[in-house]
Design goal:
Helix content is 67%, strand content 4%. It is mainly α and 427 residues long. It is elongated and about 70 Å long. The chain binds zinc ion (ZN).
Length: 427
Amino acid sequence: MRHVASFWPALILAVLAAAIAAPPAVAADEPPAAPELVENALDGVPPDEARMESYSHGRYVLRLVDFLWGVALLSVIVFSGFSGYLQRVVEKATLRPNLKVALYVVLFTLISFAGTFPLSVYRGYVREKAYGFANQTFPAWLGDQGKELALGVVIQALFFTVLYLAIRRLGRRWWVAGAALAIAFLVLLLAVGPVFIAPLFNKFEPLKDAALRGDILAMAHAQGIPADEVYQVDASRQSEHNNAYVAGLLGTQRIVLYDTLLRKFSPREIKVVMGHEMGHHVLNHIWKFVAFLSIVILVGFVLVDRLSRRILVRRPALGIAALSEPASLPLLLLVLSVYMFVTGPAAATFSRTMEHRADIFGIEATRDPVAAASAFIKFGRLDLGEYHVHPWIEALLFDHPSLGSRIRFAQDYARRHGTAAAEADPM
Ligand SMILES: [Zn+2]
């Protein structure tokens, strides 16, 4: 999914990840679990299975490999002089500044897509297939990648053309306007995403289960959310992973349930997941994340400005005359990706805090901590997220609390407040 040139998609993913209810991943070889609560959901945190550990640990390692691969690729493009060469090629076609930037961005996006393609295939297809999650054939998966690439090319060409215009016009002060532009773009993409982008990949329709739909809407109205629809999406087209999310801004907000989750989770578990999503909405988490990112972007752009200028002055042989030339783009992205990696733990902690609040909201809205504990146990079994995460890994990488912490919280809540909605479960 994520290639190095995808600064925007990466940011959007980060925001969406924060908006996503459930944690990370189902096994095709697993018998379809009857949609009931797991047994003994209040009996402590279950031990990790070997498959959960290997899938989760691989993900941590891949995070690091992704980052290092991206840094290496961008470094080669900048420091070999290739970026300067690429700009000279573009200049043979056009010397008009805006067009030059757009054309450069298109070529660069294609090249970096190709440069990260092997890793994308492994992470997105081979590994997901090996663990029984991927439901697509390779050509179908490639088709989705092609669509993402086409979108990435258009969005990035538009964004960077305007950003470089700001750099040319505003000189050393570009980063103020640049950050404002980036945030405006982010808000726009978050607003149009659920309505214009997500339907390019999946089919969305009103939730078919009328009883469940009624319950969820009643719950939304009880929480003061004027929703009149809940959506389901054919996420099983791509994968067996289970999830739900709230997306959208400025009037395009919607709650979406994966068909996989509908198939494998009981109505009580689904309601807790929905309560969590409603928590994100009521507690304004998307806007809070936008505010947080605004600060991150502003500081990031200042850093880009100071560091890139210094490097360009010292290394005239790179063939990048100034920061205002499009050939500086990979350098800009290199500085940003190191910066985002370093600030990643702060962003993850910010996100974890919001996710925990959404968990509390979901449990209080449903008064059903048993279903919450059961849902978290299922996410571990089905999506192979390990329960017992090393505290450092959780602190540095996790944008949701670990499943173990979430299960323990739900169980403590049940001990403190009882299990009113859990008639069948004795304390
Ligand atoms: Zn969430």
